[in-house]
Amino acid sequence: MIKVLIADDQALIRESLQIVLASHADIDVVGVVADGQEVLEKIPQLHPDVILMDIRMPVMDGVLCTKEIKERFPHIKIIILTTFDDDEFIFSALKYGASGYLLKGVSTEELYRAIQTVNQGGAMINPDIASKVVQLFSQMVQANFTIAIQEDWTEELSLTEWKIIQQIGFGESNKEIAAHLFLSEGTVRNYISGILAKLSLRDRTQLAIWAVQTGLTQRKLLKERDQ
After folding, report:
1. Which residues form the Response regulatory domain (predicted)?
2. What local confidence, expressed as pLDDT, does residue 226 receive?
3. pTM for the complete prediction?
4. Helix (H, G, I), strand (E, B) or coil at 153
5. Which of 115, 139, 188, 222 has its CA 20 to 30 A from that of 26?
6. Contacting residues for 64 by C-beta, under 8 A, at least 6 apart
């Protein structure tokens, strides 16, 4: 059972999301709140696995709340609910470790899949904003938001792992990576866990930023890398 907490300052949206998600047997909506401060107050009581977080809320917005949650409860997964004009907010949410970025108005099936994906440790980016997210990675690099990795750590990476890192840098989901590399989604998840451990990174967002800042997304990977 996936325990979900919904945070949105609009009562209609909160109630609609609650009704939609309650129809799935493997999801338990443990609470609904109206701002980020309420989220932080409810976490010790409700112990959510995944939080659906509106990005624009009073008292404490979704970005600052994401930062606080990942510092205090790093195991909790966060899906940001956003709009096309929220570039600055998305930029910050990326830095602080959100696992998903969905446009408001996403289909109920896509929302359900997103919750399942991030709960399993993956990331979910709405296809309509995937290219924007990749651009934001580039902006973060230019703004000197750098991810430092010791060079000798990369020597342990296989060709397949390099290819997976590159696809993550493109903003691809586990399902898309699996299709491109002819692997199962489970295998991709296992590879990503291994990559994060080898490079001592917190999550795939940091991995994606590193892929962009090192120019990996601009390179053609050759078989010689494994030799």
Report:
1. 3-119
2. 40
3. 0.62
4. helix
5. 188
6. 36
